């Protein structure tokens, strides 16, 4: 019988890959693991507890929150605060930076940016949703309260990033800059077990993921690329298959394993794009590049963008290297 390697064991075994890590990052990732287990549990009984119902509040983006959005946000916030390895967070569900001002938190050196429940509008129809996280070392001196500049760092400065996908099985996928690894949750044992070591996205793919309902609002270059994907050409295995779930984590996860491209361009409604740079695009881009893929925002490498605000939006394209490279011919 093959020995199960848990997420905790894997993190400890590979801690030496991070030269400056002294145990705090391991503890921080354990906090995220715990939060993921709790959110997994509640998602799987959301119908019973009515957690998927609307509470009529709106977050800073004008999006309606449901009870599970709030539950996931509070769960991640509480677990990150409890172990004293994080001095502050930015969340999609919070208007401003959240400072952890307890003395042990102030002495910590990490900040976390997160989307606690990506795709939550899909909960009530039983479609996969996820959580996304990005971890940075703070820029300000340890011992002082965290400041906004600690969060406004380019994605190249990430020390770790990942996502949890809650679907037919729950998986946690993460990178610390040394490859991408996936762990599947075994509820009978209560552990995340290594199931996908050193994930590599196929260089070529046959899937394109975009909300074609917004076609009339897309820039001309994106319209032309969609037509390219739909054309018949045996040499390039076209037409490609259109697959769009409406949850960034779910769409990216499928393309990461099978090969494909995810597109969320600017539109007439969202001229700067809709997805958030710091806690959606940056962590997904970090994972994509570590898996051998590419991520861009029009003519820029996503990870090199200098952020100007914590909820900044950008156009976002991520996926298989050859598909992103070909897309550039249409949008540059």
Number of helices: 9
State which percent range the strand residues make up: 25-35%
> Main beta sheet, described?
8 strands, mixed
The low-pLDDT segments are none
Number of strands: 18
The radius of gyration over CA amounts to 19 Å
What is the rounded distance between the termini? 53 Å
Instruction: Find the structural class using helix and strand composition.
Output: alpha+beta
Shape: globular
SSE sequence, one letter per element: HHHEEHEEHEEEEEEEHEHEEHEEEEH
What is the spatial order of strands in the main beta sheet?
4-3-5-6-7-8-9-10
Calculate the mean pLDDT score and round it: 91
Helix content: 25-40%
Write the layout of secondary structure elements.
Elements: H1 7-13, H2 24-44, H3 46-49, E1 54-58, E2 64-66, H4 67-82, E3 86-91, E4 98-99, H5 103-106, E5 110-118, E6 129-137, E7 160-166, E8 170-175, E9 180-186, E10 191-196, E11 207-209, H6 220-230, E12 241-242, H7 248-258, E13 261-264, E14 275-276, H8 277-290, E15 294-297, E16 300-301, E17 313-314, E18 316-319, H9 321-331
Parallel strand pairs: 3-5, 11-12, 11-13
Antiparallel strand pairs: 1-2, 3-4, 5-6, 6-7, 7-8, 8-9, 9-10, 13-18, 14-17, 15-16, 15-18
Helix pairs in contact: 1-2, 2-4
């Amino acid at each position: 019988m093959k020995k199960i390697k848990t997420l905790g064991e894997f993190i400890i075994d590979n801690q030496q890959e991070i030269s400056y890590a002294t145990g705090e990052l391991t503890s921080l990732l354990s906090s995220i693991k715990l939060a993921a287990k709790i959110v997994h549990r509640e998602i799987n009984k959301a119908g019973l507890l009515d957690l998927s119902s609307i509470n009529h509040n709106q977050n800073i983006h004008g999006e309606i929150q449901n009870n599970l959005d709030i539950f996931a946000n509070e769960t991640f916030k509480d677990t990150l605060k409890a172990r004293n390895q994080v001095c502050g967070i930015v969340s999609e569900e919070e208007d401003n930076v959240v400072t952890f001002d307890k003395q042990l938190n102030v002495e910590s050196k990490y900040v976390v940016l997160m989307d606690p429940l990506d795709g939550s509008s899909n909960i009530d129809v039983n479609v996969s949703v996820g959580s996304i996280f990005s971890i940075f070392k703070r820029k300000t001196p340890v011992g002082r309260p965290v400041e906004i500049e600690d969060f406004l760092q380019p994605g190249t400065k990430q020390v770790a990033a990942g996502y949890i996908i809650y679907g037919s099985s729950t998986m946690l996928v993460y990178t610390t800059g040394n490859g991408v690894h996936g762990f599947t949750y075994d509820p009978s044992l209560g552990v995340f077990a290594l199931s996908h070591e050193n994930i590599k996205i196929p260089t070529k793919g046959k899937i394109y993921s975009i909300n074609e309902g917004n076609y009339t609002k897309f820039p001309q270059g994106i319209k032309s690329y969609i037509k390219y994907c739909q054309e018949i050409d045996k040499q390039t295995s076209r037409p490609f298959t259109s697959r769009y779930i409406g949850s960034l984590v779910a769409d990216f996860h499928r393309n990461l394993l099978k090969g494909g491209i995810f597109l969320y361009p600017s539109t007439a409604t969202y001229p700067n794009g809709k997805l958030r740079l710091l806690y959606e695009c940056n962590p997904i881009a970090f994972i994509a590049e570590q898996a051998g893929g590419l991520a861009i925002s029009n003519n820029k490498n996503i990870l090199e963008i200098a952020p100007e605000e914590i909820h900044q939006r950008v156009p976002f394209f991520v996926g298989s290297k050859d598909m992103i490279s070909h897309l550039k011919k249409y949008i540059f």
